[in-house]
Amino acid sequence: MSTVPLYSSQNLKIYNSLTGEKETFTPITEGNIGMYVCGPTVYSNVHLGNCRTFISFDLIFRYLKHLDYKVRYVRNITDAGHLENDEDAGEDKISKKARVEQLEPMEVVQRYTLDFHNILNKFNNIPPSIEPTATGHIVEQIEIIKTIIDNGFAYISNGSVYFDVQKFNETNDYGKLSGRNLEDMIANTRELSSQSDKKNPQDFALWKKADPQHIMRWPSPWSDGFPGWHLECTVMSTKYLGETFDIHGGGMDLKFPHHECEIAQGEAACGKTPVNYWMHANMLTLNGKKMSKSTGNIISPAEIFSGDNSILSKAYAPSVARFFMLQANYRSILDFSNDALEASEKGFYKLMEAIKVLDSITTGSSTTGFDVPKWRQECYDAMNDDFNSPILIAKLFDAVRFINNSRDTKGAITKEDLDLLSSTMRSFVFDVLGLVNTNTEASENNDKLSGAVELLIKLRTEARINKDFAMSDQIRDELAAIGIQLKDGREGTSFSLNN
Ligand code: AMP
Ligand code: ZN
């Protein structure tokens, strides 16, 4: 095996939301990547829109690993501090759910964390390297707030602590990620209400004093309260990846204010910018509108797998839905529809069929009409161009056409080229795109089952030869009890399954 890592021969470019440009990717430490992606707020079941963002970053994680980078992928679980409407006022989303359903907040968290893991597992997402929770990092959040106060960028007001955006903007640039400027923001905001603890409407909470009825609360130097939502990501990313790390991702809707605030907090606490490459995944829409829990404009993964939704004509396998999402670039908006999913299903099975055909191609002395090494590099070029999965898939379909022709025209490819074609197809389809060949999986399991039953038939035949009828009957009866019927005939014993 070659010891030269693949990344050294590939020129990966990443679209950096901070600069608005595709940049050559250079990690801080050669061969190693730190990547942080904002995880879910676990107060409800994930919808297909959420899944799209996590599948987009799974593709990115998979390709970085495929290039032989050692990736530490941190994705948090927001289990406290995320208030309604992403504001600094209102109820905590998890507390509210706990109150409405009469559950402990941690029961809510557990229920929806399990759902999240279960669904992402079905989509064949690889779990992150670390999955920290906000409630597990309260101590670190209090520490970083103290540092930001000491550095002069936050103030205490009535038991809460707020980030002083105007003060920060005197020396730094608040708005650089989202392309806003503070003067415009000030001009476009309403006056603060007289009850507000903030100096300015742009300021955001680092720590909130809890109302008496607020269930989730922790002691701090300022009040019994809870940390701000933006702060948890600053704390958990820098704790596990360092004060400046390589990649930070999330959905496009998190750019402002969440990520803008993360930059401000990181710079205010550490004096350096926290992230080198900001990546934002675009939204899944339904009827042209963002899928969103709050508006109810959603379709759930469970409905896709069961077909149980009036807009669906049938059930779809998780890999079909995953393939549908990967047929769009992660930076483009993707509109969901049954027709589009049906078209993806056809494409998906065509791809799987071609992979099966690869095993039955007869090789010849030369390859005609398809330059395999060139095609392979084009597959890499597609992914090196900011993870352009639709272009990669188009390249894979160039190969599908050639494979199908080669089945009919025997000897159209050399053994060497077939091996390269086969390994490249498999690694892009299964390792990088993360698709699962459901048909193949089922047939492989059937092969294993047949092997095991054949072995038992052999043992039973031996038992009969040795006149151990108790044993031979036991094998037959116990197999029958689990639905496998043995039939003795002139050609020997065969079996059938009662389904
Ligand atoms: P939340 O649990 O609301 O914080 O969302 C979890 C992730 O899903 C965030 O990265 C959001 O940006 C992302 N997200 C929410 N709605 C959509 C959507 N319609 N399409 C794609 N991503 C979404
Ligand atoms: Zn976050």
Amount of beta strand? 5-15%
Number of helices: 16
Helix content: 40-55%
Structural class: alpha/beta
In whole angstroms, the N-to-C terminal distance is 46 Å
Q: Mean pLDDT score, rounded?
A: 94
Q: How many runs of DSSP E, i.e. beta strands?
A: 15
Instruction: Write down the overall geometry.
Output: globular
Ligands (ions, cofactors included): adenosine monophosphate, zinc ion
Query: Are there runs of 5+ residues with pLDDT below 50, and where?
Result: none
What's the story with the biggest beta sheet?
Answer: 4 strands, parallel
Radius of gyration: 28 Å
Query: What is the strand arrangement across the widest sheet?
Result: 4-3-9-10
Question: Which structural traits does this protein have?
Answer:
globular, binds adenosine monophosphate, 46% helix, 4-stranded parallel sheet, binds zinc ion, alpha/beta, 4-stranded antiparallel sheet, single chain, 499 residues
